[in-house]
Amino acid sequence: MPHVYSPVCNPNYNLTMEKIKIATAQFENKSGDKNYNLQIIESLTQQAAQQGAKAIAFHECSVTGYSYARHLSKEQMLEVAEYIPDGNSVQRLKEIAAKHDISVLAGLFEKDKEDKLYKAYVCVNKNGLVAKHRKLHPFINAHLTPGNAYTVFELEGWKCGILICYDSNIFENVRATNLLGADIIFMPHVTMCTPSPRPGAGFVDPALWQNRESDPTSLRLEFDGMKGRDWLMKWLPSRAYDNAAYVVFSNPIGMDDDQLKNGCSMIIDPFGDIIAECRTLGDDFVTAVCTPGKLTNAGGYRYKKARRPDLYADIISQPHTPEQHVVWLEADNENEKNK
Fold first, then answer.
1. How confident is the model at residue 322 (pLDDT cuts 50, 70, 90)?
2. What pLDDT does residue 177 have?
3. Were both Cys, which of 28, 38, 239, 279 would link to 254 (CB 3.0–4.6 Å)?
4. Which pLDDT value is given to residue 333?
5. How many alpha carbons lie under 13 Å from residue 282 in its C-beta half-sphere?
6. How far, in Å, CA of 106 to CA of 232, rounded?
7. What are the E-state strand segments in 170-219?
């Protein structure tokens, strides 16, 4: 029987795809060191393929590094950024995918022929570029241009989507991607362990990372508390639950420039349950099997069927001026002024 795909708003929505094993990874990237980062990506990809994974997802800007870009000029950003798909990094990702017969999803900075800059995330396989998403809500560098489209593509018979970090904090983006047909949504991040007005937020002391072998407990308490995982659990499972979709969350661990990140890369099923999670204090990956039956058995599927857009379409679409308030960037800028 051929595969059939329809957005969930279609009453004839049918599921004929087979189960798929997916991996999500965490690793400590090096800022601006593409060769090193791609070596780690290949190592983890090889291991995931050996475990039968058909795809592996890495974090936002996993090829280039992320937080250091807040210090870069436009000229420096253009040096770091690459054309997609012709740039060296995407070609290398394609080689890795072909060598290990697996789809690879990873992030980098992109430039176009007009020298516009984007935060990009790609999916490649042995045949080349499968999909590219440009972050809808970029903020790490003032010279980045926001993307203007949702991304839905086919992977091993499944419809998938991509939302980069802050994109998935705006829940309308997740619902829109899901309504366009995506039953697996990849959510690459560089997040947690940064200042915020919410109680308990803040940076984690890098000294704890350096001391992780002799005192893992103190580091884990910070990583799993309100600075890290506890905050993530306030919202990430709901994105999967409300949309009856699989969420593949990827996040770095260790130092990203001068900021410590806590990993916790995980896969969440349509019931909102975590079915796999990285819990080591180092480079790692986990795999989970996505099964189509969960997509229609989960409560979110029924809730989507019960939607009444006539009640709220005008409310949701009313005009407003978007505002992005990123506290930790403001803190960095204030520190620079005080030097």
1. confident
2. 98
3. 28
4. 57
5. 6
6. 21
7. 184-188
Rounded Cα–Cα distance for residues 270 and 15 (Å):
14
Distance CA 23, CA 43 (A): 13
Nearest to 163 by CA among 152, 154, 245: 152
- The Cα 285–Cα 276 span in angstroms is 9
247 membership: H or E segment, kind and range: strand 246-250
Separation between Cα atoms, residue 254 and residue 64, nearest integer Å: 15
Summarised one tens digit per residue, pLDDT across range 67-93 is: 999 999 999 999 999 999 999 999 999
Cα 186 from Cα 122, distance rounded (Å): 11
Q: What is the mean pLDDT of residues 319-333?
A: 74
Residue 71 CB partners (closer than 8 Å, separation 6+)? none
> Which residue matches tokens 């291991």?
47
Q: Is the Cα dihedral 307, 291, 188, 273 positive or negative?
A: positive
